[in-house]
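Recall that a protein's primary structure is simply its ordered list of amino acids. Everything else, from secondary elements to tertiary packing, is in principle encoded there. The following example makes that idea concrete.
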Amino acid sequence: MGEDAAQLLGVRREELRRVRGQTGDPALPRVLTQDVNLVVPKNRGSLFTAVWRPDRSPAVATDDTPGEFLLDHTRPYVLWGYADAADAFPADRLDALSGTDLQRLVLDRTAGWAPALRALIEGSDPTTVNAIRLRSATPVGAWETGPVTLLGDAIHNMTPMAGVGANTALRDAALLCRMLTEVEAGRMTLRPALHDYERQMRGHGFAAVRQSLRNARQTGSTNRVGRAAFRTMLRAIGAVPPLRRRMAAQLGQ
């Protein structure tokens, strides 16, 4: 496993129309309460935002549920994540920082950004702010197929920077299901079916790993030319629906 970046995550759980702050109660712009956004500044780092809207009842906590686990899915909220290269953060103490300290750290890194973005971060509940280290699996070659196989993060863990981790795991599951169906129907035996599954899974799984790792490294890059090209590409994809659909179709290939 390689470790290339870190991400600080936060949630603002108050009503989406408002952000709490010292200067009053300004409204968040529609783009932050309706859309998914990726902010890539000229120098380094990035900020991702997305909106959760209720679609189910609260989960039920059990005795072993972590106290910080977010169970309430009945209220809408904005999720944000600030990411940068791992060496851009205080590595020796990042895990020990409180949510409030992490919040201040992100506000410091986003000085000069649009006021609405900083208001979103500042208005978050500090108890929801945490840091995670982004890790990426190292591609592996074929192994001797046995009665047990792998799928999802067990074999191709990736950063969230391509947004295809869960989809890739579901693709694994669908492929494995098809192979086992062939076995059940008598058209294949188990070991060859699993071997074929593993061959295909490594292909699309590690393609997704490489894409997510490229995106993570771009996030932490300080190369202004590269970042400018990346920003231009994102703007073009966002503005031209056929390009957006083509990019989505190619993810993980």
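Residues 12-25 have pLDDT under 50 and may be disordered. The chain has two domains: 2-135, 153-250.
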